[in-house]
Design goal:
By secondary structure, the chain is mainly alpha-helical. It is 70% helix and 0% strand. The chain has helices spanning 3-34, 51-80, 85-110, 130-139.
Length: 140
């Protein structure tokens, strides 16, 4: 067994792992969504997610992870096995397409771009309690 053959086998294994993550994620997401899966980081004022939206979010996460593994497999095979200008160009195109898909899925799942900060859990707590005083004043 030579180095090139070992790298090819590792690349095939990574391809298999990427596809397996997507398929298993799609199957496992169904019962999780039906049982009412809710993410831990939902804003306090957000409504609970529907089964459909929960399934989409779970499926999107498994697709994202699978895409990352597929990109890793492509990089391993292309860079480690005698790279040519043609194979590097094909790799660049594949990575570009998969990166666009990853960003699109991230936007669909979280509602924000990957480089944006998460919204703070509660804004009234960061105002030094004045929001609670205003609410108490409104009740009287």
């Amino acid at each position: 067994m030579d180095f090139q053959h070992i790298i090819e086998e590792i690349g095939k294994f990574m391809d298999f792992a990427g596809v397996a993550v997507m398929v298993i994620g799609a199957v496992v997401s169904i019962p999780m969504a039906l049982r009412g899966y809710q993410p831990r980081r939902l804003p306090a004022d957000a409504e609970p997610m529907t089964v459909y939206r929960s399934y989409r979010q779970l499926l999107g996460r498994s697709i994202l992870l699978g895409l990352e593994l597929l990109v890793a497999a492509d990089i391993i095979r292309t860079v480690a096995v005698t790279p040519t200008y043609e194979s590097v160009g094909v790799l660049a195109l594949i990575v570009l397409i998969r990166t666009f898909l990853s960003f699109s899925l991230e936007l669909e799942i979280t509602g924000r771009w990957p480089w944006q900060k998460e919204p703070s859990p509660s804004r009234s707590g960061s105002q030094g309690g004045s929001g609670n005083r205003d609410a108490a004043a409104a009740d009287t």
